[in-house]
Amino acid sequence: MIVPPHFSTLRTRRRGEQQADMTVGLSRTPVDLELIVPVFNEERRLPQTLATTLDHLNRQRWKSAVVVVDNDSVDGTDEVVSRFTDAPVAIHLIGCSEHGKGAAVRRGISTSSAQYVGFIDADGATPIGTLGRVMALLERGHSAVIASRRAPGAHYRVEQPPARRLGGWVFRSLAGLTLPDIADSQCGFKFFNGDAVRQVIDQCRINGFAFDVELLGALIRHGHDVIEVPVAWSDVPGSTFSIRRDGLRSVTDLARIALDRR
Ligand SMILES: Nc1nc2c(ncn2[C@@H]2O[C@H](COP(=O)(O)OP(=O)(O)OP(=O)(O)O)[C@@H](O)[C@H]2O)c(=O)[nH]1
Ligand SMILES: [Mg+2]
Prior knowledge:
alpha/beta, Spore Coat Polysaccharide Biosynthesis Protein SpsA, Chain A, two-stranded antiparallel sheet, binds guanosine-5'-triphosphate, binds magnesium ion
């Protein structure tokens, strides 16, 4: 069998079905909810997050799938994913030719046909239990529901180091030019009505960590609402975010996003 570049062959099994070899590509069986997990060299943080997430999804009434989007990780990330292919919830591994968290999330969303789709980080900083509240709001008709460390009721279980907190303040100030009514645009736990987000995803271009601002801005411009739900958030060691490299790029991207709207 010829496997196209950037696609992986995994053994997957859905609820009540026999295990089968399956080439994972652009078309995936439609489900109620797809969770995109962008990953880059996450062999250490991904196992716990996948275990907790798949176990949680298996206990819900929605039919779900997890879609890991990897940018050519050079550690054992793909092997970690293959360990979970016998789970009762489907798991897919796809690649992405463009590098960056934003590019990976975009790839996951634009290839999804699920009724609801969203993304989480590999570090498990936001408890997966937050999904209950998020899905209830999506099912009530809201277009975008995002975890927020600044919504009333939110708190830090483990705070970020001071340098990251300062960087967060700078980021929020610049993001406010595009999203004046969003208190926290950067939590890696955002879920959408599938049709709403697919309407705007092709207009988004930012590949790095500031992509959330562009995506939320596009949704709001198209008349969709964004709801922030409070989160009990934990800083998790092993961040892939470099203040020097990604911080500078985020500032440039935020300026571009703000100017593009004019
Ligand atoms: N596919 C892909 N995923 C990435 C890339 N860079 C980061 N990620 C993933 O994006 C997610 C968020 O990255 P983190 O390292 O947790 O950074 P962060 O959440 O912005 O910052 P922290 O608060 O330090 O955790 C993780 O799942 C990363 O593996 C990339 O270039 N490609
Ligand atoms: Mg993180």
